[in-house]
Amino acid sequence: MTISSSKMLRLVVLLVLAAFCAAQEGRSHCCSAEDRNIVQKQWSVLWHDTESSKVKSGFARLILLKLVEKKPEAKALFANVDIDHPLGGAFTAHSVRIINAIDMAINLLDNQEALDSALDHLADQHHARAGVKKEHFTAFAEIFAEALPKILDDYDNMAWKSCFEGFYGKISGKLDA
Amino acid sequence: MKILIVLAILAVFVAVTSASGCDKLQRLKVKSQWARAYSEGHDREDFSQAIWRAIFAQVPDARALFKRVGGDDTNSGDFVAHSLRVLAGLDIVISLLDQPEALQAELSHLQKQHDSRHIPDNYFAAFRLALGHVLPAQLGRCWDKKAWSDCFEVIAHGVQGH
């Protein structure tokens, strides 16, 4: 069976279009339904204990402190939540706020429309903070990805990576630099 | 005379501490019951929907406050995101109930976010009543009404600032 050249051309156009869509809609292509399942399941292990707030604040505190160690200029951005006293109430509450935003995003993974809206709101909140840069999110992403397998016995690197890439892209999407 | 004064002071002290409610044990109870009710994924979305529908059924005018976040349709992506944001805030204060300093910090953070929105007290009452119905529906028998109402008062006062 031979394919006429016009049909061939149509096929090529279609394939290019499909590849383009996949690149645009990275989440539907990567972060598949099973990826989302895996991320939700592996993440939920952290919250089964009543003392989850101690886990939450402790984990998020460490990540934020590592972040400002890596990007010292970012430390000033956390002055209003008293980063100089990381064990104090203000910074503890802030740490829980950040981890809860991540928790919210993970739990919304199977409601794309609501997830987009939630991430868009987070993007606005970060846009409003002068001095927050995309590179800070890149650093955060690296630290977070390194830290997770240390507290999760079950950790599927590919699933987490593909789902979280979309998160960071969206949250930092409105930053100027 | 002196003894009378001491007794009077003691009586006031006892009255104040017992009236405040939400003691340490109640806080632990609320924390663990909340963790179960809050659940995860789709269940959490349904839990949140139930609470917000119960609120709007009581105070339909409250929808106007949520126009910007899709309040006209509780199923919309914008509103689901918003309702979960609110519950995430509630989750933070509940889970910090046993870390007083951090709890205070979070309550004043939430107070600042709500101040400019001029939310009438009866909307908070509607939220409380909605929780009071959806929580036992979610948890069945293992739900302590008194602990919840005592601790919700601490939270609502913190967010309202009065």
Question: Which helices and strands, and how do they pair?
Answer:
The complex is a heterodimer of chains A (177) and B (162).
Chain A: H1 5-24, H2 26-29, H3 33-44, H4 52-70, H5 89-107, H6 112-127, H7 134-151, H8 157-171
Helix pairs in contact in A: 3-8, 4-5, 4-7, 7-8
Chain B: H1 2-20, H2 24-38, H3 41-58, H4 77-95, H5 100-115, H6 121-139, H7 145-160
Helix pairs in contact in B: 2-4, 2-7, 3-4, 3-6, 4-5, 5-7, 6-7
InterPro entries (chain B): Erythrocruorin (IPR002336), Globin (IPR000971), Globin-like_sf (IPR009050), Globin/Proto (IPR012292), Haemoglobin_extracell (IPR014610), Mb-like_M (IPR044399)
Binding site for heme b (chain B): 114
Disulfide bonds (chain B): 22-151
CATH superfamily of chain B: Globins
CATH topology of chain B: the name is Globin-like
Total tally of structural domains of chain B: 1
Secondary structure class of chain A reads: mainly alpha
Helix content of chain A: 55-70%
Global outline of chain A: globular
Domain count of chain A: the total is: 1
- Order of helix and strand elements from N to C terminus of chain A: HHHHHHHH
The level 1 CATH classification of chain B is Mainly Alpha
N-end to C-end Cα span of chain A? 54 Å
| Number of H/I helices of chain A | 8
Rounded to the nearest angstrom, the radius of gyration of chain A is 20 Å
Which strand-content bin applies to the residues of chain B? under 5%
CATH superfamily of chain A: Globins
Order of helices and strands of chain B: HHHHHHH
